[in-house]
Amino acid sequence: MIELRGVSKQFEGKRKVTALENVDLLVPKGELVSIVGASGSGKSTLLNLIGGLDRPSSGQIFVDGQNLTGISDDDLTRVRRDKIGFIFQFFNLLPTLTCLENVALPLHLRGWTRAKAHERSRELLELVQLGARMEHQPDELSGGERQRVAIARALSIFPPIVLADEPTGNLDSHTGAEILRLIHDLRDRLGATVLVVTHDAKVAESCQRTLTLRDGRIIGDERRG
Q1: What whole-number distance in Å separates Cα of residue 154 and Cα of residue 103?
Q2: How far, rounded to the nearest angstrom, does the alpha carbon of residue 180 sit from its chain's CA centroid?
Q3: Structural domain that includes position 166
Q4: Among candidate residues 80, 81, 58, the one with its CA nearest the CA of residue 69
Q5: Residue 121 near residue 168 (C-beta atoms within 8 A)
Q6: CATH number of the CATH domain containing 198
Q7: Distance of alpha carbon 43 from its chain centroid, rounded?
Q8: For residue range 143-152, what is the model confidence (pLDDT) as tens digits?
Q9: What would you measure as the largest C-alpha separation in the chain, in angstroms?
Q10: CB 25 within 8 A of CB 43
């Protein structure tokens, strides 16, 4: 499902900074993986490369059998649109849209009709237990409810891959635990491959597998069960 072969990423500035160095990784379909490490270890860079938000300086990345290396920007956009759902720490919801409209937005971008997009969005908001909040705007919701909307939006296309960057990092411990249970439940229902960047040991330990990064390298790969 996800494969990295000798992937490195450097950022050029006054000094060249190596964010990832010669990373090899294979993540099978349906696996739930946490990615941990100190700030600056390369966690978010790894997630951004897998998600096609950035390009590697060297090496190859395969997502769902497709080699992302060297493809056009338009093709990379289509991969993100059709195969990857993103969940961010700060939700990234549009404040002037309702929950329903926020979830439906990726579907409109794929050319879905309004009726069809809203039907799918209603199903997903019910799935994340927000059926009563569909017409609310983000500023009328709690942090946990906003994250549920963000998760519903990420799943709107039923993506084979879900990438979550600190999905519980902006929430209190109780709400974070609820969001974590929801991610596990949805992953079990949909069979998606899920990668979660986290600083929370409980989040990491709840996953089937944990990758530990240090100075741009994978220094640990622990599987459970």
Answers
A1: 8
A2: 13
A3: 2-92+160-223
A4: 58
A5: no
A6: 3.40.50.300
A7: 12
A8: 889 888 988 8
A9: 52
A10: no
pTM of the model: 0.84
**89: exposed, middle or buried (Cβ count in 10 Å: 0-12, 13-18, 19+):** middle
Domain count across the chain: 1
Grade residue 191 by pLDDT with cuts at 50, 70 and 90: confident
DSSP 71: -
Is residue 109 in a domain?
A: no
| Terminal-residue alpha carbon distance, the chain | 20
Distance CA 112, CA 202 (A): 39
Could you give the CA distance from residue 221 to residue 131 in angstroms, rounded to a whole number? Answer: 39
More confident residue, 137 or 148: 137
Cα gap 49→61, rounded to integer Å = 8
User: Torsion over CA of 192, 78, 57 and 214, rounded to 10 degrees?
Assistant: -20
Look-up: residue for tokens 């700030």?
39
Q: How confident is the model at residue 225 (pLDDT cuts 50, 70, 90)?
A: low
Segment 200-215, tens digit of pLDDT: 888 899 899 999 999 9
